Amino acid sequence: MHIKHLILTAGLAFSVSVFAAMPQGVEELQHEWARIKYQMPEEKRADAFEALARKAEQVSASNPGKAEPLVWEAIIVSSEAGARGGLGALSLVKKARGLLQQAEKIQPDALRGSIYTSLGSLYYQVPGWPVGFGDDDKARKYLQQALKVNPDGIDPNYFYGDFLMGQKDYKGAVKAFEKALAAPPRPTRPVADAGRRHEIQAGLTKARGKLDRNS
Predict the structure, then answer these.
(1) Are 100 and 115 in contact (CB under 8 A)?
(2) Which of 76, 110, 141, 207 has the fewest CB atoms nearer than 10 Å to its CB?
């Protein structure tokens, strides 16, 4: 089974405006996630994400009742799923979804809508029934909700553009990718921003190519 290009994570999804308010340990998870995803050789990422997921579980346990650690634990677990692929990835994405749903009950708009972005990303990247829980209608709903919370954010616009590519809405994808590129930089997350902008540019080039061929 191929779990598409499950990258959720994508710092999955947010800009942090008040970094000092982040629960203890989350900042370290963010930086290490970006280093693994964007600076580590592909063949080493799965094991590195697995080790980081264990650290994230400890951070979540040390911050009971906080949504942010659960979100980042989910991002890391889903990143491991994307790096591993195969049937084993399905149990990981189910775990990630559960963590996000738990965080949603605590604070649904935490991290500027990253819960919505991350859930939306899961729903369109995971295969549908009977293999997985993928659902394009739910994906669209969550991604649009994320954009309501954080309309100018780099991640919600990127993932919405990526979703629209799968729906063959290339015009909409171009618009979303262009907005993602115009997003303000996140000073505390330069590695994540650089990696994400590379992905956005690749998506934008592909979407424009599709439009040119269809015109």
Answers:
(1) yes
(2) 141
Any residues with CB less than 8 A from the CB of 135 and at least 6 apart, and which? Answer: 123, 128
**Closest to 155 in 3D by CA, of 122, 199, 212:** 199
Do 196 and 158 meet the contact criterion of CB atoms below 8 Å apart?
yes
For residue 163, with 0-12 CB atoms within 10 Å meaning exposed, 13-18 middle and 19 or more buried, which class applies?
buried
Q: Count of CB atoms within 10 A of residue 188's CB?
A: 15
74-118: pLDDT as tens digits: 999 999 999 998 888 999 999 999 999 999 999 999 999 999 999
Q: Is the pTM of this model over 0.85?
A: yes
Closest CA relative to residue 155, chosen from 103, 107, 116, 127: 116
Q: How many CB atoms lie within 10 A of CB 128?
A: 12
Torsion of CA 46, 28, 41, 100, to 10 degrees: 40
